Amino acid sequence: MNEQDRPEAPHPETGHAARPDGRDDDGATSASALPPARSGGRRWRASSPEVVIFLATLACAGSIALTALKLTGVVDWPWLWVLSPLWGVFSATLLFALLFGLAAAFAAIAGRRTGRSERPQRDPR
């Protein structure tokens, strides 16, 4: 007797055998026909551009809120501190540009030392 000919075991709660389409005798979908619940697995993760956009938006919103408080006289802070949420965006941009520039320079130097170049080699004929 192969696996396809074997009768379905009765459902533990109802005692009815599930039909091949996954429905019980009363027409309800049996638990065995549903996909298994994922107890772990891969979670949703934000991509880098989404995180950067979120943080930049948060910094701008903070700057707008602090500017409104400064202009209405609620806080008596210097403008340097009122605009401080924008410092993070500015410094992160500078840091990224610096790291990207250093990585590009290192790759160019390493390529010269190993004899690899960016230009395709010409045929000597």
- Low-pLDDT sequence parts: none
Radius of gyration (Å)? 32 Å
Silhouette: flat
β-strand percent reads under 5%
Topology as a string of helices (H) and strands (E): HHH
Number of helices: 3
Q: Count the E strands.
A: 0
Major β-sheet, in short?
none
Rounded mean pLDDT score: 76
Structural class: mainly alpha
Distance between the termini: 73 Å
Helix coverage percent: 40-55%
Walk me through this protein's architecture:
- By secondary structure, the chain is mainly α.
- It has three helices and no strands.
- The chain has helices at 48-72, 79-82, 85-114.
- Helix 1 runs antiparallel to helix 3.
- The model has no long low-confidence stretch (mean pLDDT 76).
Secondary structure blueprint with pairings:
Layout: H1 48-72, H2 79-82, H3 85-114
Helix pairs in contact: 1-3
Keywords:
125 residues; mainly alpha; 3 helices; 47% helix; flat
